[in-house]
TrEMBL record:
It comes from Pseudomonas panipatensis. One of its GO terms (molecular function) is copper ion binding. Residues 45-184 form the Blue (type 1) copper domain. This is Uncharacterized copper-binding protein, cupredoxin-like subfamily. PANTHER family: AURACYANIN-B, COPPER-RESISTANT CUPROPROTEIN COPI. InterPro entries: BlueCu_1, Cu-binding_ET, Cupredoxin.
C-alpha cells in the first residue's frame, strides 16, 4: 500500500469530517446515543478488521449501556469504524465518494513537503490516541484505523433500535465491511 493511498483516504475522511450535522447535534449526540469516556463503559467489545471484513459480524447491546469498542486493523488498508443507521451510511458513502472523485480529478492540491506525515494532528481531528493512530470525524461515532493499528471508540446507546457498524471508505461497505448492531430494550 502506498503512502499516497493512505494519505488520500485520510484526507478524504478529514475533508468530510463535519459533513454529518444533519444526523447529529453540535454536541455529537445522535438519536441513538452519544460518545462517552472509556471509564464510563460497562463492557469492552473487541472488533477485528481485515481486508474487507469485520469480526464479529453482529453485535447486541442494551439501551442505556455504554460500550468501549477496541478496533484492531489486521488488514493492509485504512478502514473506518462508523456507528449509524443504513441511511446514515448511504449518505456518508456518497460524500466520501464525491471527495475521492474530487481528489482524483486534481480538485485538491496539497504540498506534500509541508504535510505532517506522522498523522499526529490533521485539521484538528483527534489522531494518534490509544494504541495506534486513529481519527475521529463526524459526531464522535466514527474512528479511522490505519493498517496494523488499534483505535478505540466509546458509545452510550440511548434507545432500542437496529444499527450498523461499517467502513464507508469507497467500495468497502459494498465489499462486505458492514455488520449489524442490535440495541435491545
Amino acid at each position: 500500500m502506498s503512502l499516497r493511498y493512505l494519505l488520500s483516504v485520510s484526507l478524504l475522511a478529514m475533508a468530510i469530517g463535519t459533513s454529518l450535522p444533519s444526523f447529529a447535534s453540535a454536541s455529537g449526540t445522535f438519536d441513538f446515543g452519544k460518545p462517552a469516556k472509556a471509564e464510563q463503559a460497562s463492557r469492552t467489545i473487541e472488533i477485528k478488521v481485515g481486508d474487507l471484513f469485520f469480526e464479529p459480524k453482529a453485535l447486541e447491546v442494551k439501551a442505556g449501556e455504554t460500550v468501549h469498542f477496541v478496533i484492531r486493523n489486521e488488514g493492509k488498508l485504512l478502514h473506518e469504524f462508523n456507528l449509524g443507521s443504513a441511511a446514515m451510511h448511504a449518505e456518508h458513502q456518497k460524500e466520501m465518494q464525491q471527495m475521492q472523485d474530487m481528489m482524483a480529478s486534481g480538485g485538491m492540491q496539497h504540498d506534500m513537503g509541508k504535510m505532517d506525515h506522522d498523522m499526529g494532528d490533521m485539521g484538528g481531528m483527534a489522531m494518534g490516541q490509544g494504541q495506534g493512530q486513529m481519527m475521529h470525524h463526524g459526531g464522535g461515532n466514527t474512528v479511522m484505523v490505519a493498517p496494523g493499528k488499534t483505535a478505540e471508540l466509546t458509545w452510550t446507546f440511548s434507545k432500542a433500535t437496529n444499527l450498523e457498524f461499517a467502513c464507508n471508505v469507497p467500495g468497502h461497505y459494498q465489499a462486505g465491511m458492514v455488520g449489524s448492531l442490535t440495541v435491545k430494550p
